[in-house]
Design brief:
This protein has a single domain, classed as Electron Transport, Fmn-binding Protein, Chain A (Pnp Oxidase, Chain A, Roll). It is elongated and about 60 Å long. It is built from four helices and ten strands; from the N terminus they run βαββββαβββααββ. The chain is an alpha+beta fold and 167 residues long. Strand 7 and strand 8 form a beta hairpin. Strands 1, 2, 3, 4, 5, 6, 7, 8, 9 and 10 form a ten-stranded antiparallel beta sheet that branches.
């Protein structure tokens, strides 16, 4: 089985939109990695995230705003020959993005970002109280670099191919 690059923007965006979470990786001033699973919104090659106003991640990002954000579709265990261990692989698609976090402070733009995030999960818009908007930290990540892959693609010489859901 092989790994195939995904180059088409519409396919990459579709992969992002199917994922319920993203994983945001950052590194502190000592190079110690820190990764958070987060809800997100995506629009026009920008990822929007939200959090509390303070915390470990905010402290890290104030010193080093560079992040790596990853997405992965629902993995499935696949194999070409049930008796051959090295023919087993996970079948999934992933997107890896790099960018720099900019914190959005403008009230109306924070509301817009919250709408984008909520559309990701509900397909609708909500109204937000003033304290809610003021107390949320909005992260805006314009994507500098994006790569996407499809893993576990059966080769042309595959004799048989099966899959099953792992989780």
């Amino acid at each position: 089985m092989k790994t195939v690059s995904v180059e088409e923007l519409h396919r990459i965006e579709a992969l992002i939109r199917t994922c319920p979470l993203c994983y945001v990786g950052m590194a502190d001033e000592h190079g110690v990695p820190y990764v958070l699973p987060m809800n997100f919104g995506y629009e026009d090659e920008i990822i929007y995230l939200h959090s509390a106003q303070e915390g470990h991640s905010i402290s890290i990002l104030e010193k080093n705003p560079q992040v790596c954000i990853t997405f992965c579709t629902d993995p499935k265990l696949v194999w070409q020959d049930e008796e051959v261990a090295c023919s087993y692989r996970m079948r999934a698609e992933s997107v890896i993005c790099h960018g720099e976090v900019a914190f959005e402070e403008d009230y109306d733009k924070k509301v817009d970002a919250l709408h984008i995030i909520m559309r990701q999960y509900s397909g609708r818009e909500f109204s937000y109280s003033t304290p809610s908007v003021k107390n949320v930290k909005i992260w805006k990540v314009a994507l500098d670099n994006v790569s996407a892959r499809e893993f576990g693609v059966p080769g042309t010489k595959a004799v048989k191919y099966k899959d099953r859901k792992v989780f």
